[in-house]
Amino acid sequence: MGASPWVVSDDLWERVKPLLPCKKRRFRHPGRKPLPDRQVLCGILFVLHTGIQWEYLPEELGFGSGMTCWRRLRDWNEAGVWQQLHEVLLAELNAAARLDWSRAVVDFSHVRAVKGGGQTGPSPVDRGRTGSKHHLITDGHGTPLAVILTGGNRNDVTQLMPLIDAIPPIKGRGGHPRRKPDSLFADRGYDHDIYREQVRQRRIVPAIVRRGTLHGTGLGTYRWVVERSFAWLHGFKRLHTRWEPRADIHEAFLKLACCLITHRQINSLRRPMPARKTNPATSRR
Fold it and tell me: Minimal CB count within 10 Å: which of 54, 198, 224, 266?
């Protein structure tokens, strides 16, 4: 069995460590020495994977208290650590030619916000209960490019252009960093001619299903990757239901989860291809 998913690997830590802000200790009365960042990051990942409440984080794990992990998550998010980490990981995939720029796919998912807070609203798909929406844009392989958090009552199509504009300039290849796909795939929830024209103005070909058309248009063969990406995101139990009243903390978890998904795809580049099985009946020939 492999290591626990909340244990920070050396490979991931080498990418995270240079991005973390360094706080200088006071010369006089420095106080207690802070817990190492790597252990605290393990505690944050433990909460993200298991969905446990901060105050119940087991001290015997050596990750520090839940409040310590919460403060570091807040500070690192304010410093833009997760956004920078995501851009670094995307650049590595782009350098390996593993980002599919031929198309991008957008979609959203609703989560219930148990404690309310910022970026929440009555959800029309959950009997008016308070909830939030995760808006996601991926490349043709399902790699997260950008994610946005809104209230549960926000119209999906209003986040189409902010999602496109949220794609960071991704390096890794020759020439200028790239941040626009060739085409954009979306379902009927994004059907609006005004937004189609705005997509075209950005030199992106819109492939959006029109309302009233029969199912089976064929776009599902390209759009399924974003559904899989949402399954990966909500596989982190802390994202399946929103428990944070503060929107910035939930957004920090969202961005961190996108980084972990992207890092998994980088690790998949190093795995050897499985040996192809031969048919015994034909191998004798």
Answer: 224
Token digits for 69? 């992990």
Residues across the chain: 285
Helix ranges restricted to H, the chain: 10-16, 37-50, 66-78, 81-95, 160-166, 193-201, 220-233, 237-240, 247-270, 280-283
End-to-end C-alpha distance for the chain, whole angstroms: 39
Instruction: Give the pLDDT confidence of 228-257 residue by residue, as tens digits.
Output: 999 999 999 999 999 999 999 999 999 999
Give pLDDT < 70 ranges for the chain: 1-2, 25-31, 214-218, 271-285
**What token pair was written down for 268?**
């998949």
**Cβ-contact 139, 262 below 8 angstroms:** no
Residue 83 identity: Q
